[in-house]
From TrEMBL:
<dbReference type="InterPro" id="IPR033752">
    <property type="entry name" value="MetA_family"/>
</dbReference>
<feature type="active site" description="Proton acceptor">
    <location>
        <position position="222"/>
    </location>
</feature>
<feature type="binding site">
    <location>
        <position position="236"/>
    </location>
    <ligand>
        <name>substrate</name>
    </ligand>
</feature>
<dbReference type="Pfam" id="PF04204">
    <property type="entry name" value="HTS"/>
</dbReference>
<keyword id="KW-0012">Acyltransferase</keyword>
<dbReference type="GO" id="GO:0008899">
    <property type="term" value="F:homoserine O-succinyltransferase activity"/>
</dbReference>
<comment type="function">
    <text>Transfers an acetyl group from acetyl-CoA to L-homoserine, forming acetyl-L-homoserine.</text>
</comment>
<feature type="site" description="Important for substrate specificity">
    <location>
        <position position="184"/>
    </location>
</feature>
<keyword id="KW-0486">Methionine biosynthesis</keyword>
<feature type="binding site">
    <location>
        <position position="184"/>
    </location>
    <ligand>
        <name>substrate</name>
    </ligand>
</feature>
<comment type="similarity">
    <text>Belongs to the MetA family.</text>
</comment>
<feature type="active site">
    <location>
        <position position="224"/>
    </location>
</feature>
<dbReference type="GO" id="GO:0009086">
    <property type="term" value="P:methionine biosynthetic process"/>
</dbReference>
<keyword id="KW-0963">Cytoplasm</keyword>
<feature type="binding site">
    <location>
        <position position="153"/>
    </location>
    <ligand>
        <name>substrate</name>
    </ligand>
</feature>
<feature type="site" description="Important for acyl-CoA specificity">
    <location>
        <position position="101"/>
    </location>
</feature>
<keyword id="KW-0028">Amino-acid biosynthesis</keyword>
Amino acid sequence: MTANAINGFLNFNQKWQNAAELNNPLSVLVLNLMPTKQATERQFLESFNHMKQDVRFTFAYPESHSFKGTSRTAMASSYLKFSDAAQKDYDALIITGAPVETLNFEQVDYWQEFKQIIGWSHEHVKQTLFECWACQAALKVEFNVKKRDLLEKTFGIYSATQINLKSPLVKGFGVENQLRMPQSRHTNIEQTHGVEVIASNDKIGPMILYAPQINQTYLTGHPEYEADTLKIEYERDLGKKQRIQIPTNYFDDQNRIRYTWKRSSHLIYQNWLNLIHRKN
């Protein structure tokens, strides 16, 4: 099937070719909080471009946010303000990671709007997916789960060491098909009362969590990342003279990227989309 973009920078700049939709597409609203707007759009479009369902993406932004790398005029020309996007219902909502994880939640300029968006999602979408910072932020809002700073950034590709194989979110995973996910974060959640841990790693903790009572899925990492995304982040931090370790389980002995999470990402997103049909 295919993933199409209703709006967004790639759509505006004609850098994404929409295709004919064969079935009634699932409507997915994406609150894109990442600074790399076009790269993030492309990552999600590519990730969902071979699902079993047609998917139609609408990109939105929190109007209470003061953007640093993108002008508000550019955002307004390519994205919908969330308040405008929220005038209709969607099959699903995705909220991306954001480069604000070292701030206290209350210090984030769109924190109040973020909480309002979560409240809106309870009535207007069938499933919600939170990634990285948004995962931690949503768990704080819904279950008062606290986060803590890490002494060293969790950075690299990590495999699940414990999986609840009864969960539909991990259908297709097992001994011979490891669940792998890119991670890039400075914080971790402290406890998980009220939410199910579906997959975790002994070293870094939860990777996938689920709250069936409110139809919310939480990913602590970035399944959408392309092969070279961690490399770009690593070289960026080196260029800024920041303390950064080589991403774990990412380069081989010849310093070549090992793109080991592509199938995992496909399964994770497909299983999540399947939850929408279970809800119908």
